[in-house]
Amino acid sequence: MEKLSNPQKTIEVIQKYEFAFQKKFGQNFLIDGHVLHKIIASAEISADDFVLEIGPGIGTMTQYLAEAAGHVLAVEIDRMLIPILQETLQAYDNIEILNEDVLKVDIGRIVEEKNGGRPIKVVANLPYYITTPIIMGLLEQHVPVESITVMVQKEVAQRMQAQPGTKDYGALSLAVQYYCDPYIVANVPPNCFMPRPKVGSAVIRLTTHEHPPVKTQNEELMFRIIRDSFNQRRKTLVNGLHNSQTLSFSKEQILEALEQLGVAPSVRGETLTLAQFARLADILDDMRSRT
Ligand code: SAM
Fold this sequence. Notes:
binds S-adenosylmethionine, elongated, 12 helices, alpha/beta
């Protein structure tokens, strides 16, 4: 079967259908077979797997996925691509194409209905404008997902994997690391795509934890504290939390909580580990229930 990742083949398909790339949909199609092999290998796809692909484009990655997986569900927003996909992928009987905005699809229900609730694997060359809502949506809604192997903007991959005290560390690092173990598989230059994106890209694999690595009695409060701590990066944690729009702790309470946590009153959010944020949330949650 001729591979769509061959640049000549991609051009042929685009010309045949007079397809016009839509910037607003983040359309940068992969044209490098090595990168595709690497993605499929690192996602460890086998014939038992149900794979969700977000944004199949003209079906370049879908082809590789269909050859390795048991079943592939590909969700594509651009209706102009649907007739193209129906032709390019006609040789495969294990692919289902859904013409929807992935952010509006109830993936949890699909997993229940189509895979008996068993965890799926997500593999995609993501549209970069909605990387974070897609990934956080899957994680926060507790969709049964074994792993998420995706192409994202290089900087975003670095932020997901960042450790405390580094410049890339922030709310996204903590949120991703609460749910998954992130691992950057490869950096991918712009010339592997058509058209070429203006930014560098990276493939990242997020393997979901069976249980979060830290325990907190109030997950929602912990994430609110994390968001507010990084809202004003240069501020101390005390000021960040005190200026919060949604939390209402006094300066004294926050200082007391930091003392209980065993950190300096001048500490900044970017130095705290996930375990420390979980503990801080518990301390503040206890204080709130006392008042
Ligand atoms: N998988 C293809 C490839 O690697 O060549 C295309 C990847 S391209 C970076 C992103 C794809 O996501 C495009 O096909 C785009 O139309 C689609 N897309 C953009 N926003 C979407 C959304 N909200 N829901 C589903 N698909 C979307």
